Amino acid sequence: MQLGSLRLTILDRYMLAELSGPFGFGLTAFTLIFAATEILNIGKLVSSDHAPLWAALLIFFWTLPGYVVLVIPMALLMGTLLAIQRLSSDSEITALKAAGVTFSRIVGPLLAVGIVMSFVTFFLQERVVPYADDQVTEIENTVINQGSAFSRDLTVSAPLPGGGRQVTLATAYEPHSRALLNVTLVQYDSANRPRQIIFAERAEFTANRWVLQNSSVYRFNPDGTTLAEPRIAQQQVEIGENPTDLVKRISNNDPENMSRRQIADVIRSGQLTENELRKYISTYQEKLARPFACFVFILIAIPFGLRPIRGGGSASLGFGLSLGIVFVYYIVMTICSFFAEAFLPLAAFWAWVPNLLFTAIGLSRLRRAAQV
Predict the structure, then answer these.
(1) What's the pTM value of the predicted model, to 2 decimals?
(2) CB under 8 Å to 329, separation ≥6 — which residues?
(3) What span, in angstroms and rounded, lies between the C-alpha atoms of 97 and 325?
């Protein structure tokens, strides 16, 4: 393939220009709709929780990437509907066909946008949104809550070199110092017999290591005797998770706020209950499928946009039709998410069912539209 073949033609640029305006309008409109609830939360943080205004505004700013990832497919759906409706109502598509341009060539640039935006959305979901959510958690815990980030006691189980495991328990977490409070570590041998218990006032995370402060160690020998070291100023331990993962898992317990890599790390840690494991695995698979709704929505919007409109009102009709399609799509996605959690071996399949179903509908209608 020569480089020149990748250049945009006049038709490509024209179709992209037709899409850009309605897409920008849809992106702004849908984002404002979702962000309206967050504006109410800002007022609550300032008035009820006495949070500084700058902190509340920062939280609002860092929540926007999550909303943008959610509304990009919706905006592309609405933008494609409005663009195709205008071209169809002004008979421009008919004129292009009369000039010998095939229908697939006309809509090809829009479908290409859908593929590109799917990967853009995936990048935002995996890189930008988790970072933004970390900033929200940091502001809430250090500026607003100024206390423990945990809603329940921490328990971490991690394997030990040479066999056995270590169970770590803590009652609180200090976000500003990244320290666990009232820490108990119980080490078991390969036969699940306790061989050592460590009590510490705090465990601080520095230089990628946990350091116990003012700890007491009790070792259990095979002959039944106990060796005690009542006071050790500092000692390094391996707990099995870093502070960021701990806060996400214990305070939020919501894989929707994590990247797929972070979800996979939590799954491998072995800290999840059976119900939590089902939720994490299904979300892990869904996060790969969801961004490709950008392509699916454009595919299904093209034949719907070709329908004739009488009496004007194309923008309002396009907005309403977009909401209807999105509503049906997310109902199907919710049902499939339930099946994914119920049948974990098929979680990857159920994650892609909404896209496959709507792609089939879109291709069927697109084929009929091309024959008209």
Answers:
(1) 0.76
(2) 293, 297, 354, 358
(3) 28
For residue 195, what are its two tokens?
């061989």
Is residue 141 domain-shared with residue 175, that is, in the same domain?
A: no
First to last CA, the chain: 32
Domain ranges, residue 198: 154-253
Tokens of 227: 């060796």
Interior/surface letters 330-355, b for 16+ CB within 10 angstroms, e for the rest: eeebeebbeebbeeeeebbebbbbbb
Least confident of 90-99, 148-157, 182-191: 148-157
The rounded distance, in Å, linking the Cα atoms of 70 and 29 is: 13
Whole-number mean pLDDT of the chain? Answer: 84
353 and 229 together in one domain: no
* 172 and 141 co-located in one domain: no
**Total structural domains within the chain:** 2
The verdict on 89 and 175 lying in the same domain is no
Q: Give the whole-angstrom CA distance, residue 28 versus residue 44.
A: 24
